[in-house]
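We include the entry.

. . .
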Amino acid sequence: HLELADRGPEGRWWLDTLAAPWVVLRAAAPVPAGMEEVRVNGGMRLLRNHGALPEVLLAAGPPVAGEPPRPLGELVSLELAGSSCRALLETPRPGWAWIALAPVRGWRWSLDGRAVAPAQGPGILQALPVAAGRHELVGRYRPPGLVPATAVSVLAALATILGLAWRWERA
């Protein structure tokens, strides 16, 4: 991933694929092409990154390191919540859905109600082929250790309550 960070248009392809619309750089650093300075404060510069990819997009092919997407079709709607993503996609011909969300364990994806596993692309990009037509892509994130951690917490709380009740009865 570090090697990929130095490739692409103006050496910042990796930043655009992070779907990072806002970037903070030192004030001494020049403003990269395609970015707009919004504010300078305390030696830091806030920039608007006009080249940032959306979290989900339709492209003619799979992601290739350093190459911008060739747009295809339309992202009809995109809903992002703390632990979910829902995108309605419409494409006139077969293409690829690019997902610019970190591919961490715990994400579960479905396309039109069927479970899918996006292929890992360069950097954080993931992608999956889509047929022509309208599709619903849904992703839900649940931390891998959530169920075991919840069970341990509930058991610990019960043990504490039982221990306190037992001490109270003996007193």
Summary: DSSP finds three helices and twelve strands in the chain. The mean pLDDT is 85.
